[in-house]
Specification:
With about 750 residues, the chain is α/β, with parallel strands linked by helices. The protein is about 30% helix and about 15% strand. It has an eight-stranded mixed sheet, covered by helices on one side. Strands 23-25-24-27-22-26 form a six-stranded mixed sheet. α12 (about 275-285) crosses α16 (about 325-340), α12 (about 275-285) runs parallel beside α17 and α18 runs parallel beside α20. The longest helix is centred in the first third of the chain and has 19 residues, at about 135-150. The two termini are about 45 Å apart. Bound molecules: ligand MGD (2 copies) and molybdenum atom (MO). This is Molybdopterin guanine dinucleotide-containing S/N-oxide reductases.
């Protein structure tokens, strides 16, 4: 920003009204991330207004399932949120939020919020009647007791919860279920499980470098990720690395906003990335461009991997598979191997395929054989859970005396489930979250009678809407805890109003950066909303009133006390805190020994080394080596990609008035040649369809997408029937079961056709 621009900004920022308007404009234009937090601070600090005096300031955190998990500063006057900003104390958030983050006040004060507990007379009818909390909870308690009475256990009660809010205390929902008895749990994750397993096989754990150390990289490949939209705060590190001379390469079938900022963009054929990585590996082997020191001392099975490459892989073959010219494959392989350090950001979008886990393993191998694992500025970056060592006291609840469950012991595996301790004899019943409809329809003895949805919106986020609807029709009661009348709420009997992040206390960490943020209650709960743990306490109270001893969850609960109880010595030591109260001064960063994951080369694999050859992978039904795995055979003429939008986080945010202004309607993007063969012109209404269903929306022609691809972004437009899930099936990804208890989902291995509406 130049001086005169800076002066103008300062002037605008001095007036609170124009300041807010300015921030709003910036936020909505997506330019906010470009304004340094320090400038916003400098513009007001010690000048005409000091916001410390004018407002009560609270610490908050964005609890959405997002790389960035932003630290927020909230400015309140007379009990009303006036505006929010990114916390400047976090070098990651760096004083800025994303376009969605800046819309939060519109979310809190949206007239569309669910205000009271309500009951729908006839699912899908829209005939909602207000209930008191007492009536709502009583109906729910009655149904739970009825199920126990009928079946002799509570396996007919199922929980489906995922990532609506990752605040640590929200694991109280799982605790609530455990405290009722043994129930059915939808396990796994629709998000990143194939890659998690892949990294566990290769390195023994998913662990990534601090994203802030990307500034040290000399070569960055962003492989199947779109941080310009999905992790806006990471872009400053990529830009800084570029400024210091790094080359940025983006590999994606779609020419994304991230690709537009790169030095080089490779439009790879979808789901052929494994071939590309292996082709690069073969070329490096031929050229002798291998880090022998790493391979010899810290890895296992490189010889077998080399043999595999020599026998099965050529650059010519890789070029044919991927659509990337052989010369380019050789060039980026050599550049990657020569740069020191070089890193690959392995995107979650890339692994949502039937061969997604295998592709991640091939890419990991490329990073490892060039000696970039364990290096500052290097790394096969995917994600981490190293800062998640809380107490999870809200979920540690024993089942009531005499509760009965599944007999086959330890049925739920993986690190990602928060389930009751159990009692040696019984466990919960795990089902695959990614096949919700199918599982509800198939499960018997006992059948699923009642479903509890919290932090989860399957009718917007799960495949095959028609199948899901059929499954929900078999359920006797559906309870949804949410903030808005979502597509899933439309299919519920009872809806309970949930607070927004500003109305409760919790604590947040990320799975990408290493920051910890407090989330303080900044305003009173709006209307009659309550948080997930408060609802659990209300339910426990009523269960025990109706049948003493039927629920072990606490019956009274203060969200702040529960937040406090989450902290322990491990967390304090890791973040250098004396007390959680220190976080009132701002978020804290983990005191890392090194910014590099695996800096000590002590891998957590069975051999303690990086495993090019993994027996564990073989034991789990995969190839021991990171071999090529074929993509899914097409089930329709065009591939359908439905990745994440700039304006929404899954089903959240796009329903707010700000977003509707900026992104008023859904769009399908297709290549002009594909459009031409179907007589489709720019801007016309089209029908995208396949065996499962259809959607109608506007067509946009662009060569940013390849000719074989239809691209539309997942999102919930509240005034439209548009739903990408009408078109998806529930095909599984190759990996995920090992660490998350269920395979991932092949979200991007979907096919459809298109014609004029
Ligand atoms: N087609 C397609 N489908 C996809 C994907 C894709 O790329 N394409 N991506 C997949 C991925 S990566 C993910 S992570 C999943 C996400 O799937 P979900 O986790 O289901 O998605 P969200 O829309 O983020 O959140 C679900 C609901 O939680 C509610 N909520 C927010 N805060 C709270 C709270 O504090 N308490 C309660 N009880 N509810 C709350 C929100 O209002 C929202 O309705 O979707 C997957 N589905
Ligand atoms: N604005 C915004 N930010 C978000 C989210 C959001 O919904 N909106 N969601 C959050 C969540 S839960 C997640 S999981 C992350 C997701 O973050 P990302 O992984 O960055 O995002 P996605 O949109 O899922 O997919 C990224 C890219 O993968 C590409 N892709 C699909 N198939 C292939 C393939 O076969 N090969 C290659 N090379 N690329 C492929 C898509 O074209 C897309 O551009 O973002 C988080 N941040
Ligand atoms: Mo996700």
């Amino acid at each position: 920003m130049n001086d005169s621009c800076q002066g103008m900004v300062e002037k605008v920022l001095r007036n609170p009204l124009s300041r807010r308007k300015f921030l709003k404009t910036l936020a909505l234009s997506g330019a906010m991330a470009m304004v340094p937090g320090s400038l916003l601070q400098a513009a007001t600090a010690g000048k005409d207004i000091s916001y410390e005096d004018a407002f009560e300031i609270f610490r908050n955190a964005c609890p959405r399932n997002c790389y960035d998990t932003c630290s927020i500063k909230t400015f309140v006057k007379d009990g009303v949120i006036q505006f929010i900003e990114g916390a400047s104390e976090s070098t990651f958030t760096d004083g800025g939020l994303c376009v969605k983050g800046f819309s939060y006040p519109r979310r809190v004060y949206s007239p569309d919020r669910i205000k009271y507990p309500m009951m729908q007379v006839g699912r899908g009818s829209g005939n909602w009647k207000r209930l008191s909390w007492d009536e709502a909870i009583d109906r729910i308690a009655e149904k739970i007791l009825e199920i126990n009475e009928k079946d002799g256990n509570l396996l007919g009660l199922a929980l489906d919860k995922y990532s609506g809010n990752f605040g640590i205390t929200h694991y109280g929902v799982e605790g609530m279920m455990s405290s009722l008895g043994y129930t059915t749990r939808f396990v796994g994750t629709p998000c990143w499980p194939a890659g998690i397993d892949a990294q566990n096989f290769d390195m023994g754990e998913m662990w990534c470098n601090d994203p802030e150390d990307m500034v040290e990289s000399k070569y960055i490949i962003v492989w199947g990720a779109n941080p310009a939209w999905c992790s806006v705060h990471s872009m400053k590190y990529i830009f800084e690395a570029k400024k210091r001379g790094a080359k940025i390469v983006v590999i994606d079938p779609v020419m994304t906003q991230t690709a537009a900022k790169a030095d080089m963009y490779l439009q790879v054929d979808t789901a052929t990335d494994g071939a590309l990585a292996l082709g690069m590996a073969r070329h490096l082997l031929d050229q002798g461009m291998i880090d022998r020191e790493f391979v010899n001392n810290h890895s296992l099975g490189f010889e077998e991997f080399s043999q595999y490459l020599k026998k099965n892989v050529t650059v010519t073959w890789a070029a044919k598979e991927t659509g990337i010219p052989a010369q380019v494959i050789k060039q980026i392989a050599e550049e990657f191997a020569q740069a020191d350090p070089a890193t690959i950001w392995i995107g979650y979008g890339m692994q949502r395929h039937v061969n997604g886990g295998a592709m991640v393993r091939a890419i990991d191998a490329l990073v490892a054989m060039t000696g970039n694992v364990g290096k500052v500025g290097g790394g096969a970056r995917y994600g981490h859970l190293r800062t998640w060592g809380f107490n999870y006291n809200a979920m540690v609840n024993a089942a009531p005396e005499g509760a009965v469950g599944m007999m086959d012991g330890a049925a739920i595996k993986g690190d990602f489930h928060f389930i009751g301790e159990g009692n040696a004899k019984f466990t919960d019943r795990p089902l695959n979250m990614n096949q919700l409809g199918r599982e509800i329809l198939q499960t018997q003895d006992p059948k699923i009678r009642m479903l509890w949805l919290a932090c989860r919106n399957p009718f917007s986020q799960d495949p095959d809407t028609a199948l899901l609807k059929k499954a929900f029709d078999t359920l006797e009661m559906v309870v949804v805890v949410d903030q808005f009348f979502t597509k899933s709420v439309e299919q519920a009997d009872i809806v309970l109003p949930h607070t927004t992040l500003f109305e409760e206390n919790t604590v947040n960490v990320g799975y990408w950066h290493y920051w910890l943020s407090l989330n303080e209650q900044a305003i009173k709960p709006m209307y009659e909303s309550r948080s997930d743990v408060q609802i659990a306490a209300m339910l426990s109270k009523r269960m025990n009133e109706r049948q003493p001893g039927s629920c072990t969850f606490p019956t009274e609960l203060d969200t702040r006390k529960w937040m406090e109880k989450e902290f322990n010595k491990g967390i304090y030591d890791l973040f250098g805190l004396n007390s959680w109260k220190d976080l009132r001064n701002g978020p804290a960063k983990a005191k890392l020994v090194s910014s590099a994951a695996w800096h000590d080369f002590k891998f957590k694999t069975p051999s303690g080394k990086y495993e090019f050859k993994s027996e564990l992978a073989a034991q789990n039904g995969h190839k021991a080596l990171p071999e090529f795995k074929q993509k899914r055979a097409a089930t329709g003429p065009l591939r359908l990609l439905t990745p994440h939008s700039k304006f929404s986080l899954h089903s959240q945010f796009q329903n707010l008035d700000f977003m509707e202004d900026f992104n008023p309607e859904p769009i399908v993007y297709l290549h002009p040649t594909t459009a031409k063969t179907r007589d489709i012109e720019e801007g016309v209404q089209v029908r995208v369809f396949n065996q499962r269903g259809q959607v109608e929306l506007m067509a946009r022609l662009t060569d940013n997408v390849p000719p074989d691809v239809l691209l539309m972004y997942e999102a919930w437009f509240k005034n439209s029937d548009f739903n990408v899930q009408n078109l998806l099936d529930d095909e599984s990804a190759d990996m995920g079961s090992f660490k998350t208890g269920a395979p991932g989902i092949a979200t991007h291995d979907q096919f459809a056709n298109i014609q004029k509406a």
